[in-house]
Design a protein that fits this description.
The complex is a heterodimer of chains A (110) and B (115). Chain A has strands spanning 9-13, 18-23, 31-38, 45-50, 55-56, 61-64, 70-75, 84-92, 104-109. Chain A is an all-beta fold. In chain A, a hairpin with a 6-residue loop joins strand 3 and strand 4. Chain A is globular and about 40 Å long. Chain A starts with 8 loop residues before the first strand and ends with a strand. With 115 residues, chain B is an all-beta fold. In chain B, 0% of the residues lie in helices and 52% in strands. In chain B, the strands form two sheets. In chain B, strands 2, 4, 5, 6, 9, 10 and 11 form a seven-stranded mixed β-sheet that branches. A four-stranded antiparallel β-sheet of chain B has the order 1-3-8-7, with no helix packed on it. In chain B, strand 5 and strand 6 (57-58) form a beta hairpin. Chain B starts with a strand and ends with a strand. Classes of the chains: A mainly beta (110), B mainly beta (115). At the A-B interface, strand 3 and strand 4 of A face strand 4, strand 5, strand 9 and strand 10 of B.
Chain lengths: 110, 115
């Protein structure tokens, strides 16, 4: 599984876009990039994942660089409820284990 | 969407006793489940991989006799913390997948406090 590096913390104003970066320079060709978030004292919540192409769903957008060594999770209009720790994980899909890094603690400010 | 139910959400036990935590996939079958432990202000640490019908695979440094894992059916895995001590107090979380295109679904976690 790819080792990932994320900034420890970020602030974002409510209503603005939150852009969370992740470096995964050791990611291999068959490893997906997964994003999860964890709100205090809850289990992680799936956000989005991708392999090569950019992805968008109702929660967020995922931008993966062409060399796949980094990605950015975009929350287009952050709300106070988006305050959480965000984790990016590199893993092959299917039945392979996730190794969590330290994540980014996002604080959305009113 | 896929739902993973974890029970209990919170448990307090006396030192030396054992505690069982259940993890159920409610609307899908999970041949593989994972157990994590999380200490305050730290990330999730993978403890073991639970495989239906076979022995669990433990990560390095995790005592298999201390943390007993049973995965007897495709929808249920249990983690038993045996002879619990205060240092075992932690947040325990399980996860399971409903298929290769969906990532993993996590349970809501169990807060264990050993007194």
């Amino acid at each position: 599984d790819a080792k990932t590096t994320q900034p420890p913390s970020m602030d974002c104003a409510e209503g603005r876009a939150a852009n969370l970066p992740c470096n995964h320079s050791t990611i291999s060709g068959n490893e997906y990039v997964y994003w999860y978030r964890q709100i205090h004292s809850q289990g992680p919540q799936y956000i989005i994942h991708g392999l090569k192409n950019n992805e968008t769903n109702e929660m967020a957008s995922l931008i993966i660089t062409e060399d796949r060594k980094s990605s950015t999770l975009i929350l287009p209009h952050a709300t106070l409820r988006d305050t959480a720790v965000y984790y990016c994980i590199g893993s092959t899909s299917g039945t392979y284990k996730y190794i969590f890094g330290t994540g980014t603690r996002l604080k959305v400010l009113a | 969407g896929a739902v993973v139910s974890q029970h209990p959400s919170r448990v307090i036990c006396k030192s030396g006793t054992s505690v069982k935590i259940e993890c159920r996939s409610l609307d899908f079958q999970a041949t593989t489940m994972f157990w994590y432990r999380q200490f305050p202000k730290q990330s999730l640490m993978l403890m073991a991989t639970s495989n239906e019908g076979s022995k669990a695979t433990y990560e390095q440094g995790v005592e298999k006799d201390k943390f007993l894992i049973n995965h007897a059916s495709l929808t249920l895995s249990t983690l038993t913390v045996t002879s619990a001590h205060p240092e075992d107090s932690s947040f325990y979380i399980c996860s399971a997948t409903s298929g290769p295109d969906y990532g993993y679904t996590f349970g809501s976690g169990t807060r264990l406090t050993v007194v």
